[in-house]
Amino acid sequence: MAIPIDSAAHGRVLLVGAGPGDPDLLTVRAARAIGAADIVVHDGLVDPRVLDLAPASARRISVAKKRARHTLPQDSINDLLVESARTGATVVRLKGGDPFVFGRGGEEMEALRAAGIAVEVIPGISSALGCAAEANLPLTHRDFSSAVSFVAGQCKGLSDQNWSGLAGTGRTLVIYMGVATAPDIAEKLMADGVAPDMPVAVLERGTLPGARAIRTLLADLGAMVAREKVKSPAIIVVGEVVTLSDAEDKLARWAKIAETMT
């Protein structure tokens, strides 16, 4: 049962999804939760305008994470949430996208439950949904794709992961946190049977100022990320639905390369 936002009860944690970036994509319930917070523990990518919804008296604690460098390790974040709630505070754990889509919200929920802390999850628009919508890229389409898979591109032992069947004709693959490993991802997918000329889109800084949506072929993914100097945050979308998007078209230039590889 959801914990009422306007309840007088304290000593609880709300795991809140802040959406893909644009404050206008924050849900009404998320905005109400932030407005009721005594403490806001937030990711580094949360827009300052979202943080401004918290009361002026609320304590703001950044636990920003970047590749290979965390302000706090996850266990320490879990402990921070538990100890903050035990002071009697209403704690908002504010996470980019959705807490349960590569947000480690499940781990935090487990730690809070184990400590006897009341916890509620308020979903947010995930990066995949928000960024794809901005680029007019349908993740499913009756003529092109009836299945979608989400994977993390930073996972350890990428070459050992079984991605067979996740991408290809009739399917869409969305890869989070894959910019740094884009060349390896392309090699992995092609080794697992995905055609080198499969369309791919990279959605950089989706819904934020300076957003870019660019597309090419799978065989060119790693080179294109380097050539275009793509930076995180970005997601990679693999599948025929990419051809329907408004992403800047880099496909034609590489069509002849793909022909020689198939």
Automatic annotation (TrEMBL):
It comes from the Bacteria. InterPro entries: 4pyrrol_Mease, 4pyrrol_Methylase_sf, 4pyrrole_Mease_sub1, 4pyrrole_Mease_sub2, CobA/CysG_C, Siro_Cobalamin_biosynth, Uropor_MeTrfase_CS. Signal peptide: none annotated. Its EC number is 2.1.1.107. Keywords: Cobalamin biosynthesis, Methyltransferase, Porphyrin biosynthesis, S-adenosyl-L-methionine, Transferase. One of its GO terms (molecular function) is uroporphyrin-III C-methyltransferase activity. One of its GO terms (biological process) is methylation. Pathway: Porphyrin-containing compound metabolism; siroheme biosynthesis; precorrin-2 from uroporphyrinogen III: step 1/1; Cofactor biosynthesis; adenosylcobalamin biosynthesis; precorrin-2 from uroporphyrinogen III: step 1/1. Residues 13-221 form the Tetrapyrrole methylase domain. It holds the Pfam family TP_methylase. Belongs to the precorrin methyltransferase family. This is uroporphyrinogen-III C-methyltransferase. It comes from Stakelama pacifica.
